[in-house]
């Protein structure tokens, strides 16, 4: 009843209240129907079981709710009845739909990854190269401040690969959006004539500039890192250089474009990743995978696109 409305009611307490009221009503009715036999239906016990049933059917939790309700009552004789009620509520609810919290995740389009690999990935041979996003926005190890500012303005990505342009796009590392915004706000720029030509072209020589902003200064802004709207980029700063090498994550997690989706999915689940850089055999960045790319809907679309591409190729070969 209260789900989705703009009042601080939540789901936990209303479920407890409605379940307890319904359980107490059932206890009163049983007592009225069988008051001549000498037995007594405790309304409080029925209220507790009703609260557990409604809350368990909504949240689909068993062990944790059993412990919570036992802690609230302080009576261990209700262990077995509570477990039976909660398991029955969970089983009955799963027959009809998912739990309310799971439905909320889908309605909010949150890329939540289930513990098990999607069935479509088990039935079909899908590789990382089929599901990755190929339009990757990359940066050089030493980049123009104006270009970095424009890139952050035009996109909402949380991480950007850093590639060595001189070697054909070899992956050097990654730079987070929070770090880039902090560097721009702190004006960690080098003058246009400070860097050597090799640095400007992106060559990974032994020369390395000392960081203009220390790492602890960047981390001091956690968790309220500056956004790109907080950066005041002057016209004179557009042509200055931003050396990302001291701040880059030079050991990001990567996956080869020929890796299976099962392996990629387990990497995301096991390591809690938000993205994966996809590289070829020469360690050149060819794409990037996020959690949204591994959802069952996205995998289905990728599989359909691959089949359509094969059909087009067959038609062209015949014609």
UniProtKB/TrEMBL annotation:
One GO location term (cellular component): membrane
Its membrane topology: Multi-pass membrane protein
Single GO molecular function: chloride channel activity
Compartment(s) where it occurs, according to its Swiss-Prot or TrEMBL record: Membrane
SUPFAM superfamilies assigned to the protein according to its UniProt record, in alphabetical order: CBS-domain pair, Clc chloride channel
Homology family: Belongs to the chloride channel (TC 2.A.49) family.
Protein name: Chloride channel protein
């Amino acid at each position: 009843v209260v789900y989705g409305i703009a009042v601080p009611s939540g789901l936990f307490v209303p479920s407890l209240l409605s379940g307890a009221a319904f359980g107490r009503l059932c206890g009163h009715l049983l007592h009225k129907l069988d008051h001549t036999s000498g037995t007594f239906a405790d309304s409080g016990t029925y209220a507790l079981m009703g609260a557990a049933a409604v809350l368990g059917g909504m949240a689909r939790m068993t062990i944790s709710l059993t412990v919570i309700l036992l802690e609230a009552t302080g009576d261990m004789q209700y262990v077995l009845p509570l477990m039976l009620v909660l398991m029955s509520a969970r089983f009955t609810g799963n027959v009809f739909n998912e739990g309310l919290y799971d439905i909320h995740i889908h309605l909010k389009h949150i890329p939540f990854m289930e513990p098990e690999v999607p069935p479509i990935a088990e039935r079909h041979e899908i590789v990382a190269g089929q599901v990755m996003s190929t339009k990757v926005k990359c940066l050089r190890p030493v980049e123009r401040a104006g270009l970095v500012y424009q890139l952050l303005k035009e996109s909402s990505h949380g991480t950007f690969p850093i590639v060595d342009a001189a070697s054909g796009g070899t992956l050097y590392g990654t730079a987070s959006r929070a770090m880039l915004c902090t560097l721009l706000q702190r004006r960690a720029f080098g003058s246009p004539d400070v860097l050597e030509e090799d640095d400007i072209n992106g060559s990974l020589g032994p020369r390395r500039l000392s960081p203009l902003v220390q790492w602890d200064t960047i981390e001091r802004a956690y968790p309220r890192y500056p956004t790109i709207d907080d950066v005041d980029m002057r016209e004179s700063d557009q042509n200055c250089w931003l050396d990302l090498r001291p701040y880059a994550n030079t050991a990001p997690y990567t996956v080869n474009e020929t890796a299976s989706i099962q392996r990629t999915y387990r990497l995301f689940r096991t390591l809690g990743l938000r993205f994966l850089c996809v590289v070829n055999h020469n360690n050149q960045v060819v794409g990037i995978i996020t959690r949204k790319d591994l959802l069952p809907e996205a995998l289905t679309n990728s599989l359909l696109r691959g089949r359509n591409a094969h059909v087009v190729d067959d038609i062209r070969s015949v014609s």
